[in-house]
Each structure stands twice: as structure tokens, then as C-alpha cells.
């Protein structure tokens, strides 16, 4: 007697499509292979995006932020993303070296719809490229040049369900572990968490760019 799969695992695309049904025509028509003029305002207004990559050692999704329009629209098929100062893990960049495929999710404060962009990226470090994106005299170490393959908006259901932009939903920072508390715990007290937290605001201000 065959074993019963009580979890009802879905293992084929056919089963998945049977479960969810047909794609609505607007969901198909909204996708284009370039940065259409109707989509430009979302990129230009977004101060925050999530960059997703895949590489030989796994996946990565990293937040990217700067003043609105920080991801530059070079032309209808090209985006330029400066890689600002961080923690030097450079997980995304390592991934791009081995697999150039990337995905971007653009978010605009107060707006329910998000914008999704898929494509491939290359890492550039030419002086002229970097100088274009200097802030306060500090140029990024590299930029990403993304060649766009698809663009479409995501409806606002997830943002509405999350209540993401509702002021009443903002979480007080002291209700979650601080960066220092996390490091103290994971380092088994090798890192002085209190000292780390005291120094963090000034370190962030001094090393933002």
C-alpha cells in the first residue's frame, strides 16, 4: 500500500499550476523587458531596494538605500547601482562574480505597490564610473551595471497585510536585541556588546559613505 503524503508536497509545476489556477491577464501584461516610461517614476522615487543574488555558496538578499533615485537609469535597458560602504562581506558581489543574475525589489515609503526588476549585473571599478556617484567626496569602491531583462510591478496586498507604512505599526528599537547584544551573545562575550552599542551611532555617522 502506497504511503500517504499527509503534507501533500507539491513537486511538479503542473501540480502547482493546478492548485493556483490560471494567471490573470493583467499579471501577464504588466511585465515588460525594459524600463518602460510608466515604471521610471517608481525607480526614481525609491530610496530603498533589496538586491537578490545567487552564487556557488548560496543565495543572498541585501538592503540597499540612499536618497531617492540612487539607482540611476542609464537607459531603458540599463541601471547603475553604486555599492556603498558596508561591512566588507560583499556576499552579493561574490555571487555576481560566479552568477551574474540579479533581482531588485524597489520600495517607496507610503506606496503599496513595489517594482520588481530582473536582469544580469557586472561589477565595474573604473574611476570615471565611481566619480559619478561620489557623495561628500567619497566614491563607492564599485558600481553594478544591471542589464534589465524584465520589469513589473507587484500589487500592494503584501504591504497592506503587513501594515508596513502605518505609523502605529512602528516597532520601538528597544523591544528587540541591539546589535551589540547580538554580537555579545554570538561571540560568547568576546565582544563587549555595551561598548559596541555606545560606539555605533558615531561609527555609523562617520562611515555612512
How many DSSP H or I helices?
Answer: 8
The name of the CATH topology of the largest domain is: Pnp Oxidase, Chain A
> Order of strands side by side in the largest beta sheet?
2-1-5-6-7-4-3
Assembly type? single chain
Order of helices and strands: HHHEEEEHEEHEHHH
Low-confidence stretches: none
Main sheet characteristics: 7 strands, antiparallel
CATH architecture group name of the largest domain: Roll
Description:
This protein is of the alpha+beta class and 209 residues long. It folds into two domains: 135 residues, Roll (Pnp Oxidase, Chain A), CATH 2.30.110; 36 residues, no CATH class. 29% of the residues lie in helices and 27% in strands. The protein contains eight helices and seven strands, in the order αααββββαββαβααα. It has a seven-stranded antiparallel beta sheet with strand order 2-1-5-6-7-4-3. A hairpin with a 6-residue loop joins strand 5 and strand 6. The longest helix is centred in the last third of the chain and has 14 residues. It is globular and about 55 Å long. The chain starts with 12 loop residues before the first helix and ends with a helix.
